[in-house]
Sequence to fold (189 residues):
Amino acid sequence: MNLLATAALALAMSTDAFAVAIGKGAALQRPHLKEALRTGIIFGVIEGLTPLVGWALGHVAAPYVEAWDHWIAFTLLGVLGLRMIKEGLSKGFDDEDEKPNKHGFWLLAITGFATSIDAMVVGASLAFLDANIFTTAGAIGVATFLMVTLGVMLGRGLGRIVGKRAEVVGGLVLVVIGCVILYEHIGPA
Fold:
């Protein structure tokens, strides 16, 4: 794989995480760059590791992961999104100060994993190509780190626009992304 193909693949693998990061940033109380970087690192590391796992599993797991990846992503993103919607509707964010300052590590890790399952399948397919998996995985991780960091900061502005229901909007974004992933895999060709 040449440099352009690697960059395009890295960008494509980071787009779901970018959209989710906008929702995550909107649900926080004015997230600072430090929180955006923390979120970007968590997503970037996970997104960079999953192609390595997929590559290592290669021939054995590729058919199974590919057959179920869209259902796994749909379920994880749907459950997380519905949880965020429920929490957003149950809270009376009358005061901006009631929004959390940061998301918990495990919530970010699960969300990062849900958006990186496709990268695991890509890693498995790269086991059959003449591609340097470490370069590709590194590029995916770096692209995701940058896109997620940017997404959280863009979500900061969105959070001001949508106000007290930013968590509901973030949850809806997760649910929609899960539905789009499912539709792309089982919808009409």
